[in-house]
Amino acid sequence: MLTERTVRPTVLADLVQHLPPDAALWRDPDAGPIWGSTQTLLAAVVNLLAAANWQRAGDQDAPRPDPIGPFRAPANTEEELDELDETDVAEIDAELERYRRT
User: How far apart are CA 66 and CA 51, in angstroms?
Assistant: First the structure.
């Protein structure tokens, strides 16, 4: 196989079958980075330590640390928030009320 210029389809299928879940082949190009369980756990630990250090710092004016990893909140601009009209809010309230009754 190493001396040949081509790869047999069965060998290629075996290689693809044993790729890790975060391999580039499985990624959606528009989805961004994939966080596995190890990376997610490490990011959670880093976020917890950053928040704990921020709380213990004692500086009332210090900004809260931004979380890293998959825990980041989507960025909402003022324009996006202004586009939310009252009908959307009313529909959401009606849907929540329907679930509260059950």
Answer: 9
* The pLDDT of residue 84: 58
Phi-psi sector, 64: left (phi>0), alpha (psi -120 to 50), beta: beta
CA dist., res. 65 & res. 51, Å (int): 7
Single pTM value for the model: 0.46
Structural domain spans, the chain: 1-26+33-57
| Helices first, then strands: H and E counts in the chain | 4, 0
Among candidate residues 15, 18, 19, the one with its CA nearest the CA of residue 7: 15
User: Count of CB atoms within 10 A of residue 46's CB?
Assistant: 15
